[in-house]
Known about the structure:
Strand order of the largest sheet: 1-7-6-5-4-2-3
Structural class: alpha/beta
Order of helices and strands: HHHEHEHEHEHEEEHHEHEHEEH
Number of helices: 12
Shape: globular
Strand content: 5-15%
Distance between the termini: 63 Å
Helix content: 25-40%
Bound molecules: pyridoxal-5'-phosphate
Mean pLDDT: 95
Amino acid sequence: MPDDLHSKAPQRFATRVTHVSRPGVRNHGFVNGGVHRGSTVLYPSCEARGTINAAGFEKHALTYGTSGGPTHFALEDAIAEIEGGTRCLIVGTGLAACAVPLLAFLKAGDHCLIPDSVYGPTRRLADGLMTGWGIETTYYDPTISGDELQALMRPNTRVLYTESPGSHTFELQDIDALAAVAHAHGAKVLMDNTWGIHHYQPFKHGVDVSIQALTKYVGGHSDVLLGSVTVNNEEDWHTVASAGRFMGHYASPDDCWLALRGLRTMAVRLKHQEEAGLEVARWFEQQPEVFRVLHPALPSHPQHALFKRDFTGACSLFGVVFQPRYTPAQLEAAVDSLRLFGIGASWGGYESLALPTTNYVTRTATDAAALGGPTVRFHIGLEDVRDLIADLSTALATLPR
Ligand SMILES: Cc1ncc(COP(=O)(O)O)c(C=O)c1O
């Protein structure tokens, strides 16, 4: 196999994740790259030390362990390629990937806009540390139009943060329209693209910085925590990479290697999970106990037209709103009775999950009660869908008639 095979980018996603960032024949001929662990990087001479350190932010520059090594670089290149960006910074968790660009682009006196449907810990960062450092946040309705966003922009608005669909409530955002307004005001557009993975190509829609919790489908096996921050130009790379490094963010090369391994099977897992998720979501829509299903790929979703315009597919995470006559406690009892679904938060693994979310949704700019009833978030794994539906049927039967 020629060593340069992998530089000739194949077209389709499954082919790309199979071939991207592999060592070719350089790793003693083995298919997979090695795990390169290291703190000290040895310089060939004192003079070379200066030259090498000066190249610190250049691609694949080896200066010190915290700047990454070959295993980090392989994963960084793979994620940048999947997201359609130029450079990627790997950090220790998905949450760190949310925090690093926020703290990189904002300083005291700045204003930031965050969707009301944002991932909870990102809200905690904004309300806590960022507020303490004199950065003001306005939460906005994630479904606002460009014109409505215009009214929220201030002279000191430096960041428009987006997450589409929103955590737990699954609203989609018209990123193209919002990014146009943000850019006209000189603000950066950050996006948590964890749900979209490769189905949403952020840089084609005006995003400047794309965030992924690689913990989810890339890791794919519920055994690794990692995050990525991808950018599309050198200036943004310097801003993000210097903030990440100055704060000492780092990820274990062992975890990067696990993520690279997860990536190789991600296309088939995602395809199966997308179809299985939709099958379960459609089944839920038929159940009398269900008020509505929050899944962007279903025609019943309020922003389904945006989904069809912008996404090439879906992952297997969605919400189910139950009839308002049920109490959160009754639903929790039904969830407790499930045999195949774990009760847990981190999705994207091979196993199915059910998580009651009614009491965990914080809203300050929109009304959480507008969902219409108590909600449970489902993640569909790799089990046989027929077994999952049978398990869910039994659980729904425990709800009072
Ligand atoms: C949308 C979203 N972003 C970021 C994260 C954070 O990822 P991690 O668990 O790796 O910190 C999560 C985790 O659940 C998430 O759901």
